[in-house]
C-alpha cells in the first residue's frame, strides 16, 4: 500500500481563567498534558503484556467504556505511552488486516515532526512497516502537488497483547526504542450517533491528512501538515460536540525533546495557533477552519477508507 498522505491526483476572575486554561492544556495532551492523569508522567511504563488498566489511564464515570470495545477492532484511535508530549494514532483497514500509523514526535532540534507507517500488515498479533517522512505545501499557501516528497527514515513494529495494550519498536534515522503503549481513553459515555474516528484526507491535496478520534461527545484531532518551509509538522485540537455536528476550540502546535531511550516531558512546550472549528457535513465529509494571524484558513477532508 502506498503512503496515503502521498498519493497522486489520480490515486483555550483570573483564577478561573488560569484554571480553564490549565485544564484545556492538560486535556490536549495525548501529546502534551493529559487532563485526567493528575500526576507525574510515568517515564518507565510496564511491559505491555504486564500492564493493567487503572484510574490514571482510563477516565472514570458512571458509564465506563471498556478500551477493548473501542474502534472497529479496538485498535483504531489514539495511543500513548504515559509520557506526556508524544503519541501515535492508529487506523485499521476495512478488513482489519493492516494498520496505518502516524507517530507525532520531535526531531533533535525540538521541532515537531510526524512519520507515517502506511503498510503495517498483520502476521498474527504483530505488524511491521517502513516509516516515511513527508514534506509538502505549507497550510497557508495554495497546495502544490509538485512540492510533496517523501523519504524512508526507518521501520516500526507493533506487537499487540490485546486491543488495549501493545509494544512499539522503532528505528527513526538511527534512533531506536521499544516502549509499551496503550489505548488512550479520554472520554466515556454513550457512543456518538455518528463516529467520526478514522483517517481523513483531501484527494486533491494529497500529502497531508487528519486523524480523528471520537469518544462520547469529545473529538480529538491530530492534523498532519507542513510548516512554512514545507517540513512536516502537526497541530492538535480537542473539542466537544454537545450533540451537534460542529465544535470549536484552540488549535495548538508543540515543540519538545527527541524521543530516544528517555523522554523529558518538562521540555514539551505548547503554542496557540488560533481558534479552530471542525464541522462535519456528513459521516464522510469534514471541514477544518482556523484563524491565525488575521488569516482564515479552510481545509476540506473526506474519510479515507482502505
H/E element order: HEEEEEEEEEEEEEEEE
Gap from first CA to last CA: 9 Å
Structural class: mainly beta
**Helicity level, as a percent range?**
under 10%
Radius of gyration from CA coordinates: 18 Å
Tertiary shape = globular
Indicate the low-confidence ranges by residue numbers: 1-72
Q: Spatial order of the strands in the main sheet?
A: 1-2-3-4-5-6-7-8
Largest sheet properties? 8 strands, antiparallel, barrel
Strand content: over 45%
Oligomer: single chain
Number of helical runs? Answer: 1
Number of strands: 16
pLDDT averaged residue by residue: 80
Give a written overview of the molecule:
This protein is mainly β and 306 residues long. The chain contains 1 helix and 16 strands. It has one helix spanning 14-28; strands at residues 77-80, 87-92, 98-106, 112-123, 126-135, 149-160, 165-172, 175-183, 198-201, 209-215, 218-226, 232-240, 246-255, 269-282, 285-292, 295-303. An 8-stranded antiparallel β-barrel has the order 1-2-3-4-5-6-7-8. The radius of gyration is 18 Å and the shape is globular. The termini are close together.
How would the blueprint of this fold be written?
Elements: H1 14-28, E1 77-80, E2 87-92, E3 98-106, E4 112-123, E5 126-135, E6 149-160, E7 165-172, E8 175-183, E9 198-201, E10 209-215, E11 218-226, E12 232-240, E13 246-255, E14 269-282, E15 285-292, E16 295-303
Antiparallel strand pairs: 1-2, 1-8, 2-3, 3-4, 4-5, 5-6, 6-7, 7-8, 9-10, 9-16, 10-11, 11-12, 13-14, 14-15, 15-16
Amino acid at each position: 500500500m502506498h503512503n496515503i498522505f502521498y498519493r497522486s491526483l489520480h490515486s483555550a476572575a483570573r483564577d478561573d481563567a488560569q484554571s480553564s486554561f490549565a485544564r484545556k492544556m492538560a486535556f490536549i495532551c495525548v501529546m502534551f498534558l493529559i487532563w485526567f492523569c493528575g500526576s507525574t508522567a510515568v517515564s518507565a511504563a510496564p511491559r505491555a503484556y504486564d500492564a493493567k488498566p487503572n484510574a490514571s489511564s482510563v477516565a472514570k464515570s458512571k458509564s465506563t467504556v471498556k478500551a477493548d470495545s473501542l474502534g472497529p477492532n479496538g485498535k483504531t484511535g489514539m495511543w500513548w505511552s504515559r509520557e506526556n508530549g508524544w503519541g501515535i494514532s492508529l487506523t485499521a483497514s476495512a478488513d482489519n488486516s493492516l494498520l496505518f500509523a502516524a507517530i507525532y514526535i520531535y526531531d533533535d532540534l525540538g521541532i515537531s515532526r510526524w512519520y507515517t507507517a502506511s503498510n503495517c500488515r498483520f502476521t498474527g498479533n504483530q505488524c511491521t512497516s517502513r516509516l516515511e517522512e513527508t514534506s509538502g505545501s505549507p497550510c497557508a499557501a495554495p497546495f502544490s502537488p509538485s512540492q510533496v516528497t517523501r523519504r524512508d527514515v526507518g521501520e516500526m513494529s507493533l506487537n499487540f497483547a490485546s486491543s488495549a495494550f501493545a509494544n512499539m519498536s522503532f528505528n527513526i534515522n538511527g534512533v531506536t526504542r521499544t516502549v509499551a503503549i496503550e489505548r488512550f481513553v479520554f472520554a466515556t459515555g454513550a457512543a456518538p450517533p455518528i463516529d467520526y474516528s478514522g483517517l481523513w484526507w483531501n484527494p486533491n491535496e494529497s500529502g497531508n491528512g487528519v486523524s480523528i478520534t471520537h469518544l462520547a461527545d469529545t473529538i480529538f484531532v491530530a492534523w498532519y501538515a507542513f510548516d512554512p518551509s514545507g517540513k512536516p509538522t502537526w497541530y492538535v485540537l480537542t473539542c466537544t460536540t454537545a450533540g451537534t455536528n460542529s465544535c470549536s476550540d484552540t488549535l495548538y502546535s508543540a515543540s519538545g525533546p527527541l524521543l530516544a531511550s528517555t523522554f523529558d516531558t518538562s521540555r514539551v512546550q505548547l503554542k496557540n495557533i488560533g481558534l479552530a472549528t471542525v464541522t462535519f457535513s456528513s459521516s464522510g465529509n469534514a471541514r477544518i477552519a482556523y484563524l491565525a494571524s488575521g488569516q482564515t484558513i479552510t481545509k476540506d477532508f473526506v474519510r479515507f477508507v482502505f
